[in-house]
Amino acid sequence: MTTGKTPATSQIEVFIALVVSNWEKRSNALGVDTYMQIQQLINKLPNKVKPAQLRGYLAPILVNNPQQQKDFYLFFDQMLEVYTAQQAQQELLLKAGETAENQPVSSKAYPKLIQQWQGFSRKIQWLIVLGLVTSLFVPVSLVFYVKQLHRNYLQEQEILLDPIFNEQASSATPKTIKPPTVEQNPQTTQPKKTPTPAPNESQTAQDSSSFHENAPIYFESTKAGGLSFSTQHAYFSPLKGMILLPFTLSLILLGLWLRYRNRRFGLLPKLDPDLPHEWTIRIPFLHHVHMGESFNLAVAELHKRRATENLRLNLKQTVKATAEQAGMIDFKYSTLSQPKDYLVLLDLSLTRNQRSKLFELIIRSLEAQEVPLSLFYYRDDPQHCWNEQYHEGISLRDLQHKYSTHRLILWGNAQALLDPQSKVVPIFEQWRHKIIVSPKAAVDWGQSEALLAQKFRIVPATPKGLAALVENLEAIEPKNYLFWKAIPEKNTDSLSIQNGLSAKDLIAVLEKEYLIPTPSGQDDVLLKWLAACAMPPVLFWDWVQYAGQIIAQNQNQQLLTLENLYQISKIEWFNEGQIPEPARLVLLNWLEEQHPYLAIKLRHEWLKVMTLETNLPPINSLAWQGHRIQVIMNQLLQKQQLSEHQKLEAELNRLLHADVHQDALLIQYLRQKKSGLDQVLSDRFRKFIQKRQGISWKWRHWTWQLLGTATGFLLLLFSHYTEPVQVFKFKDYITDLAFYKDNRTFAVFAGDGSVSLCNTTNSKWLSGVREGFDNVVESAFSEDWPMLMAVNAQGSQLAWSIVTDWKIVNQPFDTSFMEPWIEHVENNDLISAVKYVVFGTMIIGYYDGRCDLEAYHSNMNKFNHNDAIRDIDALREQKLVLTCSNDSTAKLWSFEGKLITTFAGHNDYVYTCCFSPDGKKIATAGRDETVILWNLQGKKLRTYKGHKGDINDIVFTRDSKAIITASSDNTAKMWALDGSLIRTFYGHKDKISTLSVSPDGTKLLTGSNDQTVRLWKLK
Question: Is 954 strand, coil or helix?
């Protein structure tokens, strides 16, 4: 806070801040007026005033009674001693700094640093040390974290970076050889497809996504992976904790630095210029509101007297009884009665809540009818109340002592009574007669009202509820609270209007609620009234009544009734104190279009209300600016003369761009809406998370530090690092994959019938077939010949001789043997599984459960199941065959067709099975989302669970120490033989259908229905 005075005055401000802040900490409540008086005092103090002279200035402002004045004088002397000690310490430090500056330059550098260090407090020294340690620790931890994320382990072996991820292409790029045109083969039923020549040597992996016109298939090679965020596999590790710890320390240091940086006295901090413009409106001589029959019935009930224990001699009855007793005196007495007294506690939880003003109007009207009641206000928690007599507040316990014989009416929100820790419930139990008048619509009553009904009588804050108030309060057996839910009260039930409605839809909703059917048509008087309420920028209860009064005079009818006020204020807008700007604009436009003369009259009346002396806000405050803007806008709408119009526009433009004055914060404080924090925590706990600065509350530093730490924790928790992988994109879903023995060439079969030959070294497409070979069941490279073989479900076969090591070719040669050869076969029995044993010999499984060993199209032995064969594997050296089926079993056979073992352990179809490369174990998996590891004797060794979908393919690593599974949950997983999960391969967008491990065991291919093949490194 700056006043433009001498430096001496700034020291006075510091002392005043010290006195005021500590005086308030001693439970001395200071109002808004007190701060304004202190501000004026600072501005008018003489320049040469001393701190000791301020006791006489501050005492009249801060104290209210003689005892408080004595306490303040003692307190002032203590603060003066503290301030004097602080000033003396600052002067010593200042002199020490000046002495150091006068020393020679050669001897000043290092000693000056020591003096500065010693001049800091112990807390500041620790902060500096902690900041230096954190600044060094954070970069080191980040570097270590990033390096650690790049490492993956398998059986304690470090994964080496594959050459595929080098940015530059490998020097071993195959030469470009263009195969000749393929002629018609008489052995096939359709012409063979011409393979596309390999891309030019200079073409990179990224360039291969754009092919020339002769390209046979769609293909694209990209890289994917790295640091990402996902909720699929959140985990926390000590390494992430090492990152979170310095991040938290950094937030703490930042908060402490901000705290010490902002140590200054300011009654009014800088104001947000976007705060809403609002001020208090009071309109005198408002017409009386017709309260209705329900209100009169309630008044009559509230006026009834109650009998007391006191007696009074009844002379008339005594004389009569004496005469009847022949002169023997017989005294007769009458019971005295007295009026019932009521204590009303009205909830003003939101100062902008206009519906609470309606309830206050009802209570004030009861007082006007001489109903013996005492009114107190509270906010949310009735533990602290106040009224005009007790403007500083009175506790609920004191109210109970003072009004213990009164009937208690708790009018408003009673949610605070549901808190098990609440201290007010035992106090309320001491009242014999008590009732809650709930502003919540009865149709919305639920569990909260059921709990409240156990200790209180409860009625809705409606005319019917008001009429039945005394009956429910006095009744021995009151009506069940559910009775009110069955009573429809359309005019008083709360109405919530969805945000974002179009103008047409909003008017339709309001017309349905507010149009009144009459013999001559629909009367829109209530809708006009609601539109008139939208004239001010915010809702004012006095203007709501005054607008109804204007419309009633215009239509010559009784409009100001309690029922109509209930009807007009039932929208949630009145609880919030403001109509949303889009809805406000719709209502004003409707009023202009449907009733233009009424709109002009209302604007004119609103301008008169704003110019009333009682409604003028402080000059140059934020509320004054909003007030002036409203006045100018209304004057502009009155179609002033051109010169006056230009003058008003110039002033309006100046107001819109003017600086905001700090004293406007006082007005903002008086009408600000209570936060959700106030509805959850009491003032007792609020001080721990918020602090008062001047007249405003501000969050303590640890609150946003805790929020920042939580945010950092969540980011770390859901962050994961996936290794960069090469992604090969194709035109359709992938049906099968096969690795060649050179460990860098692989074949891909897609659902569109295409066959592709790709290279892992430079991520290029080498050759392929556009279409004609779909529904592939099995593919494999021959172990004896450079030949790719495949069979589809119809029994058609593909044979493709290839040459991948181009260095062995040092002279021109015939490349016709490299053409893919497709033999199409018409087969009525669909093939479901195939396994190549040697070239020309394979095992074929069918959907009917048959499985045949064929050698050059001649059936030799059979291996049958009760349902479709899903997968086949074979050990050529041991002459063993492994089959699995939809009959939920897998079986081990000899080549001669003899059944050796049946593996029964799955609960559903078994989709895939395989031998371990060492020939000692068997793995099966399928539809039940589990993997089972067996030995060759049929003993179950282990069960693996972790997938959330069908397991479609399974392979062993080449060293037989791990299993890799592919699932419909879009992931592949690697499992150790002991059952632990080694790693999960994330990245596919659809189910993974096929796997292939390179012969050297260093690479893995996964094919998916998302039309991609991903290349992963294993070692």
Answer: strand
Q: Residue 620 has what pLDDT?
A: 62
- For residues 673 and 653, which has the higher predicted lDDT (pLDDT)? 653
13 vs 92: CA distance, rounded Å: 22
Higher-pLDDT residue of 423 and 595 is 595
**pLDDT at res. 582:** 83
CB 357 within 8 A of CB 420: no
Q: If you ran DSSP here, which 8-state letter would residue 571 be given?
A: B
Exposure string over 442-472, b if 16+ CB within 10 A, otherwise e = beebeeebeebbeebbbbbbbbbbbbbbbeb
What are the angstrom distances between the C-alpha of 41 and each of 34, 35, 37, 611, 869?
10, 10, 6, 30, 96
pLDDT per residue as tens digits for the range 743-781? 888 999 998 888 888 888 877 888 888 888 888 888 888
Overall average pLDDT of the 176-190 stretch: 34
What whole-number distance in Å separates Cα of residue 983 and Cα of residue 987? 13
- What pLDDT digit, counting tens, does each position of 779-817 carry? 888 877 778 888 888 888 888 887 655 444 444 444 455
Question: Tokens 């230009």 sit at which residue?
Answer: 646
Distance between CA atoms of 905 and 943, rounded to whole angstroms? 10
If phi > 0 it is left, if psi is from -120 to 50 it is alpha, else beta; for residue 772 that is left
The sheet that has 851-855: what strands, in order across it? 831-838, 841-846, 851-855, 858-862
Closest to 197 in 3D by CA, of 657, 815, 811, 824: 815
pLDDT given for residue 116 in this prediction: 57
Length of the chain: 1019
**Reported confidence tier of residue 668, pLDDT bands at 50, 70, 90:** very low
Distance, in Å, from the CA atom of 740 to the CA atom of 908, rounded to the nearest integer, reads: 33
Determine how β-strand 821-823 pairs with β-strand 972-976.
unpaired
The confidence band for 228, taking pLDDT boundaries of 50, 70 and 90, is low
Tell me, what's the pLDDT at 225? 58
| DSSP assignments along 115-160, one per residue | HHHHHS-HHHHHHHHHHHHHHHHHHHHHHHHHHHHT--EETTEEPP
State what percent of residues in the chain have pLDDT above 90: 13
Distance CA 505, CA 510 (A): 9
Q: What is the dihedral of CA 342, 345, 346, 349, to 10 degrees?
A: 180
pLDDT at 931: 95
Q: Cα(476)–Cα(435) distance, rounded to whole angstroms?
A: 13
| CA 956 – CA 920 distance, rounded (Å) | 12
pLDDT of residue 942: 92
What is the DSSP secondary structure assignment for residue 270, as one 8-state letter?
A: P
602, 628, 664, 671, 1009 from 625: Cα distances, Å: 22, 5, 10, 16, 64
Ramachandran assignment for 500, one of left (phi > 0), alpha (psi -120 to 50 degrees), beta (any other): left
Q: 609: how many CB neighbours lie within 10 A of its CB?
A: 18
The share of the chain scoring above pLDDT 70, in percent, equals 71
Residue in 579, 655, 580, 603 with CA at minimum distance from that of residue 624: 655
Which H or E run includes 1004?
strand 1003-1008
Give the residue with greater pLDDT, 970 vs 70.
Answer: 970
Contacts (Cβ under 8 Å, ≥6 apart) of 118: none
pTM of the complete model: 0.41
In contact, 128 and 253? CB cutoff 8 Å? no
- pLDDT at 142 (0 to 100): 64
CA atoms of 84 and 327, how far apart (whole Å): 94
In angstroms, rounded to a whole number, what is the distance separating the alpha carbons of residues 315 and 313? 6
Torsion of CA 163, 169, 170, 171, to 10 degrees: -160
Determine the Cα–Cα distance for residues 467 and 297; give it in Å rounded to an integer: 6
- The predicted pLDDT at position 405 comes to 85
